[in-house]
Backbone:
């Protein structure tokens, strides 16, 4: 063969190959084996199905369909409903025990789910101190199986969060994990060994079971024939699942996922859709946009360990300068709500519904004037005090602290725009509002890891903009975030907030086993925090998700979006609609 | 030649040792806490410290370094913090996908670049040369994500000719009726858009190198001699000028093939191609030290050895070169 012929063949053969591929792949798409399979687009694939290790949201999406808890929050009132448990837990306040009766249920291999599985799960978490769950079981003293289907948890101290959180943790198969645990205990690092265990075929007690996982491409769950909920009515909802399986398809970008949704390659994109995509999606008759509240908190945090952010008057002045409505309108493009308390409004039972004066509708001029008054009353002075010439502001210059020293330049740390453009933009806005009254400030976007290092470990910052997109509905975290004892490196009291009254309330709330007794304490904690403002809550973005209406019906909307277990157990295929 | 190769191998070992050290230091200096995302807000400091110890991150830095060197020498690169799997297994899953896409892309671009570069040089100053050169310059300077998204929009969505992204269709691979041949076709079908992007982005570089090299070659005396002998223009171009102009292109293709194992984080992300480039970015951003270190070391090793192979190939292709 001559060299020229070789080159010609080398170019033509691949072309021939891809052309044939194109022609041949047509018939496959027409196959209808997957008529009842729900296809979900996700941005990242699950990191692991090892339930002890992976806590990222993408892994949690899949794990929630495999490993079931005793209690699950129902979608309407968000109260824990018996799920793997048969009835509400029986609490004995004298003995500090919760007794839980399980439903008759089976693992995906057909073996029964027993109280021993629940005991094994709790003991493993407690003994090995599994990071994902250990704090939930911190108050657990002992757990025992009273019979095949009854388990009793004995607490060492009252823990208000135990029922909501520990009993909401998944129950795992003893038969599957006991040998793994024994093997791990023979190693020098048993916890690491457990976390690094490769789980090939997880036993599921949920509505679906793993069928196939092509790493980086898709993960296929098929219906679990042994699912305990099939045909049952729980919390007034008749459960299926009526779909034969779920395929999670990985899309590297929202651009591709949104196009796939419009094209019909996926039925649901399990991620928040940014405002830029909404116009096209709204125009598509097959696509439905669902807006849900999130259990989220996006806030401006202050470093109370040093002036000026350590001074309450300064923080109040900053709060007065920030126009949250403007942030919602311009940065979130209307897709969110103002937060005037640290617990989101969706958490109706514990949310403090009280609007502070700085969140009242004020004009920019009113905000600036009141902030200047607050600062002046606290002893701040200016070479040139901010003033108005008609509607035009003459910004303040040469601001001095109450000791008469020029105020140093203050940094506002934010995640970078490629990580979260909204938080980065909020940092810039806060900077500009501070500059208007003469406070020298600069927004500094930095890598997320670096930001956490500065804020959580080194405590080297003045202000920062952060957010939590999926907070537990149980308010136990409120205490963790602001308890004085948690002001330490890697501690969760990032602001360095110390208030003996708050600490006492937080401890009392943590021990209040009756939710009705706990509620006023949590409300009072929020009141104190809104007054002291270690964190200034800013906004709670609305979760906007996209789904196709042509193939499935029965989506269940709740806080956190339609991607919930109730949806997967109730979704039904629409008759006669094949995938395009 | 043997002595040269042995010397180069010794150099490579020294450089790899330096790279190992630099990688270790760089990732420890980088801000961020690898366990930050694994701890719960309510976790006690003791439990958090215990987790750090379990991952071996509590040891003094020099002990971590010695353990790391020892493990690398035995081929044990540890477990990924986030996947919980051995990093070599993760790399092993992703690397073939990257090699398949990017090596095919490099080879197709190089073949077209060589052929069209030859044509451009042979027609220097004519319309063919002008069009090819301008096209090369324009396509080579395009912004890759923009081009990729444009191709996806036009050919994947609007015309619906090709899949929007991914490496395979679950519709085909999960279908019990799909045969092996159909699955192979499916992979090829998914490669068309990413390959098209890579081809458009890269053929211009090879074309320009080939054109430039060919123009130099055409000035050589042996070309004049060939013409004087009465050989046809085609024979002169293809058998006398082109083979001698290949040398710089060979270097370029060799190194591009080596770097192709690095993948292209952007290409892989936009097309959701499950390759090593996306994993590398993830590992760095999440402070997954073991995965990031092993991925970078692999890239460095392949680039170093490819350099050696290209140098040896030079001597084979050009008898004038002696080591």
Residues:
């Amino acid at each position: 063969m001559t060299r020229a012929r070789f080159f010609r063949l080398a170019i033509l053969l691949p072309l021939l190959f891809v052309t044939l591929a194109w022609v041949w792949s047509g018939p496959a798409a027409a196959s209808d084996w997957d008529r009842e399979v729900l296809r979900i687009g996700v941005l990242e694939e699950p990191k692991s199905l090892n339930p002890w290790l992976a806590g990222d949201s993408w892994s949690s999406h899949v794990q929630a369909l495999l490993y079931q808890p005793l209690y699950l929050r129902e979608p309407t009132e968000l109260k824990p409903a018996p799920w793997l448990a048969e009835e509400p837990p029986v609490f004995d306040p004298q003995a500090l025990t919760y007794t839980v009766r399980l439903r008759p249920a089976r693992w995906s291999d057909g073996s029964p789910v027993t109280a021993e599985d629940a005991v094994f799960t709790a003991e493993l978490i407690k003994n090995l101190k599994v990071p994902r769950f250990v704090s939930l079981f911190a108050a657990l003293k002992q757990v025992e199986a009273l019979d095949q289907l009854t388990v009793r948890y004995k607490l060492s101290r009252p823990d208000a969060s135990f029922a909501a959180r520990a009993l909401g943790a998944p129950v795992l198969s003893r038969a599957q994990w006991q040998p793994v645990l024994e093997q791990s205990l023979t190693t020098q690092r048993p916890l690491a060994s457990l976390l690094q265990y490769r789980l090939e075929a997880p036993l599921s007690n949920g509505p679906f079971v793993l069928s196939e996982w092509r790493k980086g491409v898709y993960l296929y769950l098929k219906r679990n024939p042994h699912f305990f909920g099939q045909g049952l009515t729980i919390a007034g909802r008749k459960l299926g699942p009526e779909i034969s399986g779920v395929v999670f398809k990985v899309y590297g970008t929202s651009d591709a996922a949104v196009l796939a949704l419009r094209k019909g390659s996926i039925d649901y994109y399990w991620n928040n859709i940014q405002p830029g995509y909404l116009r096209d999606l709204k125009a598509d008759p097959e696509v439905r946009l669902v807006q849900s509240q999130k259990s989220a908190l996006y806030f401006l945090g202050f470093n109370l360990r040093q002036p000026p952010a350590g001074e309450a008057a300064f923080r109040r002045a900053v709060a007065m300068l920030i126009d949250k409505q403007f942030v919602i309108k311009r940065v979130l493009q209307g897709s969110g709500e103002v937060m005037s308390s640290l617990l989101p409004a969706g958490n109706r039972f514990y949310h403090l519904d009280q609007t502070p004066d700085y969140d009242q509708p004020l004009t920019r001029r009113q905000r600036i004037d009141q902030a200047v008054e607050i600062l002046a009353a606290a002893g701040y002075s200016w070479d040139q005090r901010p003033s108005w010439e008609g509607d035009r502001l003459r910004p303040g210059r040469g601001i001095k602290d109450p000791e008469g020293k020029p105020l140093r330049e203050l940094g506002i740390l934010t995640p970078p725009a490629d990580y979260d453009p909204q938080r980065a933009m909020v940092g810039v806005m806060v900077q500009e509002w501070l500059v208007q009254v003469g406070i020298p400030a600069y927004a500094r976007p930095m890598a997320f890891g670096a930001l956490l290092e500065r804020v959580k470990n080194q405590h080297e910052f003045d202000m920062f903009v952060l957010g939590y997109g999926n907070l537990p509905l149980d308010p136990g975290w409120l205490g963790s975030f602001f308890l004085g004892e948690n002001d330490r490196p890697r501690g969760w009291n990032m602001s360095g907030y110390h208030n003996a009254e708050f600490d006492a309330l937080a401890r009392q709330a943590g021990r209040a086993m009756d939710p009705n007794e706990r509620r006023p304490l949590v409300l009072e904690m929020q009141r104190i925090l809104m007054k002291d403002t270690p964190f200034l809550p800013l906004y709670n973005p609305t979760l906007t998700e996209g789904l196709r209406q042509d193939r499935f019906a029965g989506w269940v909307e709740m806080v956190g979006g339609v991607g919930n277990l109730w949806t997967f157990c109730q979704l039904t295929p629409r008759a006669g609609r094949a995938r395009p | 030649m043997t002595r040269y190769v042995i010397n180069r191998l010794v150099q490579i070992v020294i450089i790899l040792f330096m790279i190992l050290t630099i990688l270790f230091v760089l990732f420890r200096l980088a801000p961020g806490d690898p366990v930050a995302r694994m701890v719960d807000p309510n976790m006690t400091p003791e439990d958090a410290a215990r987790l750090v110890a379990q991952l071996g991150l509590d040891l003094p830095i020099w002990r971590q370094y010695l353990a790391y060197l020892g493990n690398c020498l035995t081929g044990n690169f540890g477990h990924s913090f986030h996947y919980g799997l051995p990093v070599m297994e993760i790399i092993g899953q992703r690397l073939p996908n990257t090699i398949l896409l990017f090596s095919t892309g490099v080879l197709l671009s190089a073949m077209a670049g060589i052929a069209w570069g030859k044509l451009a040089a042979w027609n220097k100053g004519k319309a063919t040369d002008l069009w090819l050169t301008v096209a090369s310059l324009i396509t080579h300077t395009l912004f890759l994500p923009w081009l990729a998204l444009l191709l996806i929009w036009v050919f994947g969505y609007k015309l619906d000719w090709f899949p929007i992204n991914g490496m395979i269709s679950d519709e085909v691979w999960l279908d019990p009726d799909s045969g092996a041949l159909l699955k192979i076709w499916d992979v090829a079908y998914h490669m068309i858009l990413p390959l098209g992007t890579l081809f458009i982005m890269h053929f211009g570089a090879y074309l320009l190198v080939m054109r430039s090299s060919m123009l130099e070659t055409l000035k050589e005396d042996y070309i004049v001699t060939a013409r004087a002998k009465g050989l046809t223009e085609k024979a002169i171009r293809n058998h006398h000028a082109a083979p001698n102009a290949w040398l710089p292109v060979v270097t370029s293709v060799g190194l591009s093939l080596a770097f192709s194992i690095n993948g292209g984080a952007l290409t892989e992300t936009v097309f959701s191609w499950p390759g090593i480039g996306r994993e590398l970015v993830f590992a760095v951003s999440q402070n997954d030290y073991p995965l990031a270190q092993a991925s970078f070391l692999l890239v460095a090793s392949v680039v170093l050895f490819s350099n050696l192979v290209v140098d040896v190939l030079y001597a084979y292709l050009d008898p004038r070169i002696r080591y």
Remarks:
- The longest strand of chain A covers residues 140-147.
- The CA atoms of residues 290 and 545 of chain A lie 5 Å apart.
